[in-house]
């Protein structure tokens, strides 16, 4: 059975609102070690701001730290439903060349799935299994060598 986005997504999302400014977003990103902040009105997702947005639309345009979020926000956001399969999420990320997808239900933000979530939970499971098999085989071979 295919794994679903809801099994992998982060639900403890750091968010901001249109009342915040560029400086406050930068501090949120620094304090939480993140590069992506969903902008919400209540729980309704209205856009996102990435660290790149802050640089390209904010500081590179000589906006000050007090510049409103509205000046740097990306409103045309690709989102995903929690019941989408992990494979579909990966394809969507690849086709749009994005690393994070807000997960929404009825327009409300319910989580975020990142490309790292897909990699850690899907790809590395196979790699970990292969590595464990390899380690087990090496130990078995060493034990045979010691016995003889």
Automatic annotation (TrEMBL):
Classification via SUPFAM superfamilies: CBS-domain pair
Entry keyword rRNA-binding: no
InterPro entries the UniProt entry points to: CBS_dom, CBS_dom_sf, Diverse_CBS-Domain
Keyword tRNA-binding recorded: no
CDD domains assigned to the protein according to its UniProt record, in alphabetical order: CBS_pair_HRP1_like
Name by which UniProt lists this protein: CBS domain-containing protein
Record-annotated CBS domain positions: 9-65, 73-132
Organism encoding this protein: Paenibacillus lignilyticus
Keywords: CBS domain
Xref: Gene3D superfamilies: CBS-domain
SMART domains, per the entry: CBS
Superkingdom, taxonomy of origin: Bacteria
A Pfam family assignment: CBS
């Amino acid at each position: 059975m295919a794994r679903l986005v809801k099994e992998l997504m982060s639900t403890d999302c750091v968010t901001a609102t249109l009342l915040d400014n560029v400086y406050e977003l930068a501090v949120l990103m620094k304090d939480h070690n993140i590069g992506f902040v969903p902008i919400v009105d209540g729980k309704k997702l209205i856009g996102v701001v990435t660290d790149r947005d802050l640089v390209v639309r904010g500081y590179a345009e000589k906006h000050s730290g007090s510049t409103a979020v509205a000046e740097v926000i990306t409103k045309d956001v690709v989102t995903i439903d929690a019941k989408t399969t992990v494979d579909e999420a990966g394809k969507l990320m690849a086709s749009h060349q994005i690393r994070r997808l807000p997960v929404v239900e009825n327009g409300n933000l319910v989580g975020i799935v990142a490309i790292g979530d897909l990699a850690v939970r899907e790809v590395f499971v196979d790699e970990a299994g292969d590595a464990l098999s390899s380690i087990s085989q090496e130990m078995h071979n060493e034990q045979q060598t010691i016995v003889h």
